[in-house]
Design goal:
The structure is a single chain. The protein is built from ten helices and eight strands. By secondary structure, the chain is α/β, with parallel strands linked by helices. Strand 5, helix 3 and strand 6 form a beta-alpha-beta unit. It is globular, with a radius of gyration of 22 Å.
Length: 341
Amino acid sequence: MKKLLTIVLKTLLYLIGILLVLFFIFYLLTTGDYEVAGTVAQDSSIPHIKIGNTVFHAETFGSDTSEVVIALHGGPGNDYRYILPLKGLADEYFVVFYDQRGTGLSPRVTAEEFTMEMMLADLHDIIEYYAAGRKVNLIGHSWGAMLASGYLSRHPERVDKAVLAEPGILTSEDAKVFMEKVKFKISLGLLIHFGKCWLQSLHVKGPDKQARQDYFLQTLMLTGKSKNNPFAGYYCNRDMSTSSFDFWRFGGLANASLFRGAMDEKGNLQLNLVDGAENFTNKILFIASECNTLIGEEQQRIHLDYYPNAELVVIEDAGHTMFGEQPEKSLEVIRKYFDEP
């Protein structure tokens, strides 16, 4: 018995030794200088606005005497760089972009500040800041479209027209369906990608305390090319390299924290971003991409029923990032809708 125990212990020690050696080799292979962009907090020359005590990285395009269009990026945690093709509307509209609280190049905040109520309040403040009592038009993408829907439900009187491009989850039922579709399939490639991203993040030295978390999540979620990635279904042929996801800096804490307070004791997301949607009686435009099998046309047709006057247009040959993949087609669809009486 003692001899067998000795053999087992030696074998375990050998395996642990091999794993440590492999870890050390992998660590060396991922050494280097990995950086994330500084925010307005480090560089005040970055275009920004301050509303109350909150600072937002923000830019505008077009004449401020034109109709206001507020563009809302996805995530939670992305920034507005990837939806900048929407600035093509600036020949007719005053187009406003802002990095949401604690994301992109906006200064980092604490986890407690990431709540749905806070995000909706921020959007209201942005609208008041740029529109000064006038009605605005909203264009929301993905999470940004969810945010826009929540705002429409509460403040229908402040919005003239709204474009919701593939909102993923508007209700608790949507959340259940989405989680059934998005299931992680553990593979060697996915594990290696995860390990590489984590090890690289250990070499990030600044510019603030959230830099490592931001780097880890942005490389994990936005650079993987595996067709086994649970989010590959967003894109044509499940090929994530066809996406158009330019970014400055991901907001890891925003992504990890925003919905945490909306979970019940079983871990189910309790959400309703269409409570009051029937009060927005103007026509609303939903956009879906042809390739998205997770929250594409099928899911958006379900969302149509939440609003009394809604239309769906599908962008051909595009995945979830349709504004960057097919900018001309996307702008044509939006212009046509905005031009309607």
